[in-house]
Amino acid sequence: MKTIKDIDIKDKIILVRVDYNVPLKNGEITDDLRIRASLPTLEYLLDHGAKQIFLISHLGRPEGQPNSELSLSPITKVLEKLLPKAKIGFYPLPTNQESLHVPADTKIALLENLRFDPGEETNSPEFIESIVKATGADIYVQDGFAVVHRAHASTDAIQNFLPIYAGLLVESEVNNLSSVLKNPAKPVLLIIGGAKVEDKQPLIDKFLTKADRIFVGGKIAADGYQSSDAKIVVATDFDENEKNEKLDVGPLSTGELASLITDANTIIWNGLLGYAEDPAYATASTIAAELIGEKRGVTTIVCGGDTTGFVENLIEEHENLHYSLVSTGGGAALEFLLGKELPGLKPFLP
Prior knowledge:
Blueprint: E1 13-17, E2 24-25, E3 28-29, H1 33-37, H2 39-47, E4 52-56, H3 73-82, E5 88-91, E6 108-111, H4 125-135, E7 139-142, E8 164-166, H5 168-182, E9 188-192, H6 197-207, E10 213-216, H7 218-222, E11 232-234, E12 238-240, E13 246-249, H8 251-263, E14 266-270, H9 283-294, E15 299-303, H10 305-317, E16 325-326, H11 330-337
Parallel strand pairs: 1-4, 1-7, 4-6, 5-6, 7-8, 9-10, 9-14, 10-11, 14-15, 15-16
Antiparallel strand pairs: 2-3, 12-13
């Protein structure tokens, strides 16, 4: 894989695709996981003498129209706190390929939401070329793993205009996800939760030949998921509310899952095991997350937006928890695990 570690960055202008699609409430960022995930790449570029760094990202679904509620401007303040030694600026999307007038002492320039222009989602070469020419970029760095499965201008059309290299986040995601596909240490345990069986069944099918055991919980199990395959363990008891709704995996099945986690040397977890938005029904997910995070010397992959957010919150409360990868890419991680070709990875994968 071609990464930023393979090239001379000194005095180069670098255009970096990050994923700052972060949750906002009243203009405030409520979870900065994806911003912090970009720091290793940004710090590497700064430490190795990049002349200037331009960051591009999307936020939400503005449908090709400017929307003040989906502006990336609040992210500037977070970056200033996380990278206090670098002067950071915020700039509008360039149009008609005009130059961006960014002061020389501004080391990092964040551009406005890519999806304010319809050209991003229509994979327009003209749109991304305008950004390339306006920034004067020499090199493109793909570090937005969560969008590499999209054939958009910043993942696909960009390949026509600049040499492309993987950032450190993308490198970590690809290496960790590849490890559980190619030669995982056994026993391999796949934990499946969530609500939509149609989203999860392809992953279950993919891992039937790779996993030693597959545990199924969440609403999928509560709704009666069944399998005759001896590898698949489906939760059979549940914690219920006063309406007799099954909202969490019960103690017997949670204990069975705990034993599987204890024995496993490779663990892939996708999908919460209960209605974890309510702490009363987050017990099974919490036990699983803590048991997995306390294991050492094993490969542990957490993927899926709700699952990674849940685990990140636990990490903030319990510093002893460690995972090989808490993936920033929900759909991208699943498609990678399913063996699909992802447009944003083609330029630098062998």
